[in-house]
Specification:
By secondary structure, the chain is α+β, with helices and mostly antiparallel strands. The chain has one domain (about 1-125): Nucleoside Triphosphate Pyrophosphohydrolase (Alpha-Beta Complex), CATH 3.90.79. It has 2 helices and 7 strands, in the order ββββαβββα. The protein has helices at about 45-55, 120-125, and strands spanning about 1-15, 15-20, 30, 35, 60-70, 75-90, 95-105. Strands 1, 2, 3, 4, 5, 6 and 7 form a 7-stranded mixed beta sheet that branches. The longest helix is centred in the middle third of the chain and has 13 residues, at about 45-55.
Length: about 130
């Protein structure tokens, strides 16, 4: 079974988190934290910055390592490193997603998350104000 090594950004602004809605693939129309695959010879932080630039056309700054998680999907095994981040430059544009929302801690359960990302929600419920 294939293992995917990916990174995800927990982008924060004013006590809110950016959630994005998948616009393609197996999990279309489910919500996720943006990010993607780590390329060869790339650090996790570099991958995160590149992926957010590709997906949302803005520049982020990872500010804190949040958590590593692993999740077994039917067709692949996921290893994901998650980082809290802020937007340094630009405004998120939906290049690969079909929607985005800024969510407060109280709103985190209002969207249908991709299964692995539920572990990030647990982390946020413990750490967000």
């Amino acid at each position: 079974m294939k293992t995917l090594n990916v990174v995800a950004a927990i982008i924060k602004k004013d006590n809110q988190i950016l959630a994005t809605k998948r616009g393609y693939g197996e999990f279309i129309n489910m919500w996720e934290f943006p990010g993607g695959k780590i390329e060869n010879n790339e650090t996790k932080e570099e991958a995160l910055i590149r992926e957010i630039k590709e997906e949302l056309d803005c520049t982020i700054e990872p500010t804190k390592f949040a958590l590593d998680l692993e999740y077994q999907y039917p067709t692949f095994y996921l290893k994901m490193s998650c980082y809290e981040a802020i937007i340094k430059e630009g405004t998120p544009k939906l290049l690969e997603h079909n929607d985005a929302r800024w969510l407060t801690k109280q709103q985190l359960n209002e969207v249908n998350w991709i299964p692995a990302d539920l572990q990030i929600i647990d982390y946020l419920k413990e750490t967000m104000e």
